[in-house]
Write a structure and sequence with these properties.
- The protein is an alpha+beta fold and about 350 residues long.
- About 25% of the residues lie in helices and about 35% in strands.
- The chain is built from eight helices and 20 strands.
- A hairpin with a 3-residue loop joins strand 16 (about 300-310) and strand 17 (about 310-320).
- Bound molecules: adenosine-5'-triphosphate.
- Adenosine-5'-triphosphate binds near residues 39, 43 and 45.
- Keywords: ATP-binding, Cell membrane, Membrane, Nucleotide-binding, Translocase, Transport.
């Protein structure tokens, strides 16, 4: 991956509060990267520093080899789309889209051809004489998208652009944005707090927590190999078993759980040294129920509850006082509530994270 956008030790404080803390990461040309994290984790601040509406307190931002963190927004050639569409109500759609071009002194003929092209991209050419109030929310958001694309930026920054739309429209717009990303070869940085949206749309996702990136990885990398407890719990759902790392050899870690049982976990370099505390993260669909207490990674459990979800059943398990969740196929053998069983998982199906 070539480095197209590079954050080099970027921090941002408001007064004494550090809201972005030493960010170091690269984004490749043409990549779609989402910023995902809880409210207040610094996603918007990161995006605003890239757009030029905020200046870092320290550190450097490079875009296509140019240092940009002190450049004003209009010199960065980035398209920006916000949650609120921010269209001018007194202008027609065509005038709204032409506005940034007019501000840059572009001639009328060139402006018109670019507006037509941008409207064609979002398939709303027939609405160009209307005013924003005469459009639906989804149409207004597509116009805002067209406006961000009109000066053919190489980077498009989007801050929760779909969160005001209903579910169906949101899913439709997700597909449209992905399609535009692919066909135009755009580099997209997309802020969302919807993990489903981040996982389905992105090449990679940066999980932010308290101003730091906990993990920047592909969607499957985050789900299957979370590196921290925060990521394991934030992305999807997981079971966390506390224990002590006893040994690591040949790619297999041995972890002694609180109740004295030892489980094996296939992993590269473990996150802790032998003797230190770790957590074993096992996704609910990786927990298998059986009856062989001698099986590998076997935990005796009692079935506390079963909840039918149509395509699957969720079992709530009690494992020596700890609550676990298993997701089973409807066709699996039925397990009556109150019965005992053995919950097991393969060493390949778990991950070690720091507590
Ligand atoms: N101009 C400002 N002055 C003071 N504090 C600010 C300013 N802008 C943001 N903050 C604070 O910085 C922190 C990070 O805010 P930011 O908007 O980047 O978070 P976020 O992850 O985008 O959150 P959300 O999902 O709620 O939009 C928050 O605690 C916020 O209150």
């Amino acid at each position: 991956m070539d480095s197209f956008i590079h954050f080099d030790a970027v921090s941002k404080s408001f007064g004494t509060m550090k809201v972005v803390d030493g960010l170091d990461f690269h984004v490749g040309r043409g990549e779609f990267v989402s910023l995902l994290g809880p409210s207040g984790s610094g996603k918007t601040t990161l995006l605003m520093m890239l757009a030029g509406f905020e200046t870092p307190t320290s550190g450097a931002i490079h875009v296509d080899g140019v240092r940009v963190e002190r450049l004003p927004p209009y010199k960065r050639n980035m398209g920006v789309v916000f949650q609120s569409y921010a269209l001018f109500p007194h202008m027609t759609i065509a005038e709204n889209i032409a506005f940034p071009l007019k501000m840059r002194g572009m001639g009328r003929a060139e402006r018109e051809s670019r507006v037509t092209r941008a409207l064609d991209l979002v398939r709303l050419g027939e609405l160009k004489a209307r005013r924003p109030a005469q459009l639906s929310g989804g149409q207004q958001q597509r116009i805002a998208l067209a406006r961000s694309l009109v000066y053919e930026p190489k980077v498009v920054l989007m801050d929760e652009p779909l969160s005001a739309l209903d579910k169906q429209l949101r899913e439709h717009m997700q597909l449209e944005i992905r399609e535009l990303h692919r066909t135009l070869g755009l580099t997209v940085i997309f802020v969302t707090h919807d993990q489903g949206e981040a996982l389905t749309m992105s090449d990679r996702v940066a999980v932010l927590n308290r101003g730091k990136i906990e993990q920047l990885d592909t969607p499957s990398g985050l789900y299957d190999h979370p590196r921290t407890r925060f990521v394991a719990e934030f992305i999807g759902e997981t079971n966390l078993l506390e224990g002590t790392l006893r040994a690591h050899a040949d790619g297999l870690a041995q972890v002694e759980l609180a109740q004295g049982r030892v489980v094996a976990c296939r992993t590269g370099a473990p996150p802790a040294a032998a003797g230190e505390r770790v957590m074993v993260s096992v996704r609910p669909e990786r927990l298998r129920l059986g009856s062989d207490p001698g099986a590998a990674n076997a935990l005796p459990v009692r079935i506390e509850d079963d909840v039918y979800h149509g395509d699957h059943v969720r079992l709530h398990l009690d494992c020596g006082g700890q609550r676990l969740v298993a997701r089973t196929d409807r066709r699996d053998e039925a397990r009556p509530v109150g019965s005992d069983a053995i919950a097991g998982f393969a060493p390949e199906d778990c991950t070690l994270v720091l507590p």
